[in-house]
């Protein structure tokens, strides 16, 4: 195999109660990337469409992951990488994670499936370090494993795949305002009441149980975040309106995607998810803020060959 | 039906990571209780064996629950209650919860199954108020629902049954020292680091996922408590030795049962659980402290007719 075209999904991290611990991958929203083997042993980013990102390989998330994997595997080839971003960086939908995990997946294919998903996640996390300074796993693990994932532990990294109910559909609205991950982190308290923490882990337990047992009602009752959302939502115009409208339109629940500004909702079928999209759209259409909306099933496979 | 004999199980609350949110019921350790309809409309506790507890109905956990249910249901009968305690109050194994939930279950049978398990849990929680001043749900819900339960929410009460792997077996050691629930609560911090909380809810997620998927290894990796155990274990002599010995003998994990002093371990089969019992016994046998050990499967039914 000399060339591979891959799709790397957008991802929703946190999933309300699962702050810094859970994530899921979208089926139809994500980046396209083309990787071509070269004889030079270098990594060259030859095309980037859809976003302004560095072309220097050691400053580009995809380039960093590719260089690391070629070195680790002592590969006898180099790479030409073309990146087609289909959603914007800074959306809270794991843009850097899509580049990092798409690269990890593609390079592994070109290496003949040398690495496990856990190892690919560890490589992709180094792309997250390049993008935001932290080796966070939730978005990249969701992109690589697909479906819902739980980051059970960091040292050693322990990723648990959680079954995804087939009919579960996400609706996303991305208000095109800038929230830096750093700023979004600053507003989250470093200490919390034990009582709040207990409620949060009861909801994590409920969400994971609901996903395992296809209990949509339980999933909905568990999509509650007492830790990040009460603080972060102030950074997102009309958050409460969007959430309430989504739930009124039939969504099981809604919350902030990653560190925002995107807002996600989960619904029990496509038709409801589309109604939720209409409801979200109605809140934003006269807001004077640019925005995009998306409806997508949950991706069961994550990163995949196109 | 004029008389009913019931078994009400001992229960393990918290289950390490699931502090104040999870619990499970034991199959073979628990109280026996006999309820006989009377014409007097009073509740009389006519026998208590195995523990020193009040005979006045309005001061006895079983009496309190029975009085409440007879009043709520406008029953045209009274009750004679005989209580046979097979494990000691103050053990951390839900002694008051066994009396409360056994009563709720038995009275409901005599009323022709008028109430749901959720309603029975709410009645039994009033027994917990009588016993310890708080309407805690974890032990009583585990006793009434059986298996593993998650207290997803208190207001309104929301109990989630979690599937129990068939082969899972608990080993318990009860060192006969006194730890008051109140004292055990005092040593647990009221505020915790967000980082600690995230680890705790990742483990709750892992434990619930492991129970759903019969993943014993994941169950073991998730039996970690960073919140109560590091503080409470100081109240339990030889805790670290017991835990380490249990794990060395093959247990998936171990922790404090409820607010202690009992220590529980979970194993993937009966043979291992018996080895774990031997290992726990070896730690305590020359300690000069009286103790009991128990090996039991997880009760899938909870409170039951004998």
From TrEMBL, chains A, B:
Subcellular location field: Cytoplasm
Keywords, comma-separated and alphabetical: Amino-acid biosynthesis, ATP-binding, Cytoplasm, Kinase, Nucleotide-binding, Threonine biosynthesis, Transferase
Domain GHMP kinase C-terminal: 208-286
MF-aspect GO terms: homoserine kinase activity
Sites where the protein binds ATP: 88-98
Pathway assigned to this chain's UniProt record: Amino-acid biosynthesis; L-threonine biosynthesis; L-threonine from L-aspartate: step 4/5
Taxonomic superkingdom: Bacteria
Major site of localization recorded for this protein: cytoplasm
NCBIfam families hit by this protein: PRK01212.1-4, thrB
Purpose: Catalyzes the ATP-dependent phosphorylation of L-homoserine to L-homoserine phosphate.
Family note: Belongs to the GHMP kinase family. Homoserine kinase subfamily.
Name of the protein this chain belongs to: Homoserine kinase
């Amino acid at each position: 195999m000399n060339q591979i075209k891959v799709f790397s999904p957008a991802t929703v991290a946190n999933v309300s109660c699962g702050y810094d611990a859970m994530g899921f991958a979208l089926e139809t929203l994500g980046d396209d990337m083309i990787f071509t083997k070269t004889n030079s042993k270098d990594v060259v980013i030859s095309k980037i469409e859809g976003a302004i990102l560095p072309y220097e390989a050691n400053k580009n998330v995809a380039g960093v992951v590719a260089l690391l994997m070629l070195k680790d595997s002592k590969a006898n080839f180099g790479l030409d990488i073309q990146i087609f971003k289909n959603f914007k960086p800074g959306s809270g939908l794991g843009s850097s994670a899509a580049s990092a995990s798409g690269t990890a997946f593609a390079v592994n294919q070109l290496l003949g499936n040398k690495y496990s998903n856990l190892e690919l996640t560890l490589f992709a996390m180094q792309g997250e370090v390049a993008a935001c300074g932290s080796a966070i796993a939730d978005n990249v693990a969701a992109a690589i494993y697909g479906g819902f994932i739980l980051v059970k532990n960091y040292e050693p990294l322990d990723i648990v795949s959680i079954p995804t109910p087939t009919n579960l559909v996400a609706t996303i609205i991305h208000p095109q305002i800038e929230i830096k991950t750093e700023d979004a982190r600053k507003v989250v308290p470093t200490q919390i009441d034990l009582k709040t923490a207990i409620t949060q882990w009861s909801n994590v337990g409920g969400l994971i149980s609901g996903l395992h047992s296809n209990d949509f009602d339980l999933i909905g009752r568990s999509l509650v975040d007492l830790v990040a959302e009460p603080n972060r939502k102030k950074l997102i115009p009309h958050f409460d309106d969007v959430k309430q409208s989504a739930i009124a339109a039939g969504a099981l629940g809604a919350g902030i995607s990653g560190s925002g500004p995107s807002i996600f909702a989960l619904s029990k079928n496509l038709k409801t998810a589309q109604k939720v999209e209409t409801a979200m759209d109605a809140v934003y259409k006269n807001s004077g803020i640019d925005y995009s909306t998306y409806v997508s099933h949950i991706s069961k496979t994550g990163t995949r060959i196109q």
